[in-house]
């Protein structure tokens, strides 16, 4: 006997035990480490997911030692059967991904909590070939844009992109806060999709996918999801639009695309068709790797600075 997310939202205050849930993962955040020197915790990890069934979408939090055990198997598109989970009121300050389906109902007041004890949550992954249409689980939807559409999008707009990498910079570090010991790791990349003379300029922060982040190189097909548009809002005539990763961004390169839900998307198929018409030798001549990439570029004179 299953329950659904809509029913949970209406009845969660009056119950302690809940029926099992069948949901599909639509978004996945990067893994968060919240350890502090003075706190003695074995595995201070946490990861957010947005999961959905036929009734709508809700946040799900994976805690502590469940993270190293389950984080990598829980992919966008994965179907889960959950039992012995708990329901809590939502943490108000977490980031919100932009759903691919704007019509989907969002249950924002509560979240599903998966713990290793009190009670120990039971998690099962349902293989895609065993998922039945009558379960009514939503498909993963994307918001792919082409390079020719990018300049007209507003600041902070959320989108997904696919392109051929023509440039990738070295990994750089930026302090998370002034005088702090923590750093963000990021690198710049350019990707083209044939719809514009200009490339996508991508600021890629290290997500929880080090195996992908370290192997972005020219001539790979790069997919980045849940990217945010950064428009320079000053009156600068040479302003450049670029995209930066968000907390829910996922990055995929050649070798990782098989079986991903976005392979059915029309804009992804159009890009593959365009690539088939290109000469690899010509494209390789235009590619660059490494070096320092000053961006956004400083003005060309001190007066304008």
UniProtKB/TrEMBL annotation:
GO molecular function: single-stranded DNA binding
Pfam families in alphabetical order: RADX (PF17659)
Highest taxon above the source species: Eukaryota
Protein known as: RADX protein
Organism whose genome encodes this protein: Rhipidura dahli
């Amino acid at each position: 006997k299953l329950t659904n997310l809509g029913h949970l939202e209406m009845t969660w205050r009056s119950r302690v035990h809940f029926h099992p849930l069948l949901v599909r993962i639509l978004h996945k955040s990067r893994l968060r480490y919240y350890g502090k020197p003075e706190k003695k915790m074995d595995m201070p990890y946490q990861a957010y997911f947005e999961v959905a069934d036929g009734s709508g979408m809700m946040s799900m939090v994976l805690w502590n030692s469940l993270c190293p055990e389950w984080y990598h198997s829980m992919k966008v598109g994965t179907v889960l059967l959950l039992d012995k989970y708990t329901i809590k009121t939502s943490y108000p300050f977490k980031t919100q991904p932009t759903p691919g389906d704007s019509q989907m109902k969002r249950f924002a007041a509560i979240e599903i909590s998966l713990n290793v004890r009190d009670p120990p949550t039971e998690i099962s992954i349902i293989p895609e070939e065993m998922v039945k249409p009558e379960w009514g689980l939503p498909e993963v939807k994307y918001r792919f844009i082409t390079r020719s559409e990018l300049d007209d999008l507003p600041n902070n707009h959320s989108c997904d992109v696919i392109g051929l990498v023509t440039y990738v910079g070295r990994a750089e570090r930026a302090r998370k806060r002034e005088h702090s010991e923590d750093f963000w790791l990021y690198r710049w990349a350019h990707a083209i999709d044939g719809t514009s003379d200009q490339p996508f300029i991508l600021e890629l922060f290290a997500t929880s996918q080090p195996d992908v982040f370290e192997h972005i190189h020219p001539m790979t097909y790069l997919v980045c999801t849940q990217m945010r548009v950064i428009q320079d809002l000053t009156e600068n005539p040479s302003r450049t639009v670029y995209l930066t990763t968000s907390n829910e961004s996922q990055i995929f390169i050649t070798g990782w695309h098989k079986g991903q839900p976005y392979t059915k998307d029309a804009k992804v198929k159009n890009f593959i068709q365009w690539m088939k018409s290109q000469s690899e030798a010509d494209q390789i001549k235009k590619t660059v790797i490494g070096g320092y990439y000053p961006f956004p570029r400083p003005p060309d004179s001190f007066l304008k600075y």
